[in-house]
Amino acid sequence: MSGATLEAYLASFTARGEDIARDVAVVVQRLVMAALEVRKLVNQGALGPAFNAARGSSNTDGDLQKEMDVLCDDLFLSCLQGAPVACYASEELENPVLLDPNARLAVATDPLDGSSNIDNNVSIGTIFSVLPAAKGPDVDPSQSFLQPGNRQLAAGFFLYGPQTALVLSIGKGTEIFIFSSRLGCFVEAYKSISIPERTSEFAINMANYRHWEEAIRLYVDDCLAGSEGPREREFNMRWIASLVAETYRILTRGGIFLYPADSRKGYSQGRLRLVYEANPIAFLIENAGGSATTCVTRILDLVPENLHQRVPLAFGSRREVARVARYHVDPNMIGERAPLFGKRGLFRA
Question: Which end of the chain is more exposed for a tag (fewer CB within 10 A), N or C?
Fold first, then answer.
């Protein structure tokens, strides 16, 4: 199953002779440098000085920043210094950082996705998006990140788990590379991933059932009803609470992931961030033959209103994502049947 090294893969990509392709390759290589340093920090676990340390400040999500979040953000920002990157944005920074106004690329990251799980030894990662930088003498660096995800030049994530993986798309297919300690580099392990159109596996946080809108509740009800319900087959449920780990599983064996909007305070527009979470994940998923939506609308067509905008997110096997959309827009998908857990859901009066 093993193949070319990442270096050889990028060399083939840049052989087309386009300057922008060479710039993208340089950025990916710089991100790899930072990720390997993050890997060392993560592998120290509870023995590392920054493992459980928290800062007094909060990030853009309102969560208390962990020392690891900030260290990882600093590592990626530092490694992009001197690269062809005009500006850098992340979940840990309120505003983008201007690096080189003459450069042609912009990079957005979630430097340590799933960091709340780090003390549980659950796989976490780094998500990144590479965009063309907005140009102009007085352009605001934020403008580089307020463009639809379909303009991404590359996207991917590093997964720090039992294997250190890089999932990468440069617009033609999605590849998975595994870090080889023996060779000291990333080696292609899965070439041109193809997500099955159908699935019998879904991932969602069932604890929020009572907060979901009816379409999501009834979609999940139909899955849980199994072979005796309208889907006429058995489903398995998964929930890791790590976006990168969920995405990796879906890329390698199919499935659907749902993080819908709900009625809780602060969740009415979803919870995941469009620019540096939903967009890069959607780019990877679509380039692997899957689909990614807000449960209705294609993620990559959305124009961000601000850097830290939230969105609902459903992604994975194409037919299953389309079915979720039909539950929202086609009343015939819902009909007159009652929810599996009663009118008020799991927690009845």
Answer: C
* 18 given a catalytic annotation: no
Annotated catalytic residue within 91, 246, 262, 320 = 91
| 3-class SS string, the chain | CCCCEHHHHHHHHHCCCCHHHHHHHHHHHHHHHHHHHHHHHHHHHHHCCCCCCEEEEECCCCCEEEHHHHHHHHHHHHHCCCCCEEEEEECCCCCCEECCCCCCEEEEEEEEECHHHHHHCCCEEEEEEEEECCCCCCCCHHHHHCCCHHHCCEEEEEEECCCEEEEEECCCCCEEEEEECCCCEEEEEECCCCCCCCCCEEECCHHHHHHCCHHHHHHHHHHHCHHHCCCCCCCEEECCCCHHHHHHHHHHHCCEEEECCCCCCCCECECEEHHHHHHHHHHHHHCCCCEEECCCCEHHHCCCCCCCCEECEEEECHHHHHHHHHHHHCHHHCCCCCCCCCCCCCCCC
92 is catalytic: yes
Question: Is 112 one of the annotated active-site residues of the chain?
Answer: yes
Catalytic residue status for 140: no
More confident residue, 174 or 341: 174
61 is catalytic: no
Note if 110 is an active site residue.
yes
139-181 residue pLDDT tens = 899 999 999 999 999 999 999 999 999 999 999 999 999 999 9
pTM value surpassing 0.85: yes
246, 277, 286, 320: the active-site residue: 277
